[in-house]
Amino acid sequence: MSCDVDRVRHVICTEPRRISAVSLAERVSVELGETSGPGRHESLCGYQIRFESRQCPTTRLSYCTTGVLLRRLQGSDANLSDVACIIVDEVYYCIIIVIIIRT
Is the per-residue pLDDT at 103 higher than 70? Predict the structure, then answer.
């Protein structure tokens, strides 16, 4: 990942289960004082799970399942050029992601 100071960078936090990703995004959104919820109008926090994405152009912290991150790593932006940091929660569930990220 190259560092470009003019580019907006995102933080991705992976969760092994969909309910965890959604509930954490909702909790962080509340603690940030956002009244519209995750991924809504001008929200800094959002989530992406299978078949559902709640993100907006202002989203900077994104919770997702490990499967979503794996699909993104296999896609056209495998370098994750807009990502500053990846936080892998419960790493023993997804050791394959750590191996892919390290290579």
Answer: no
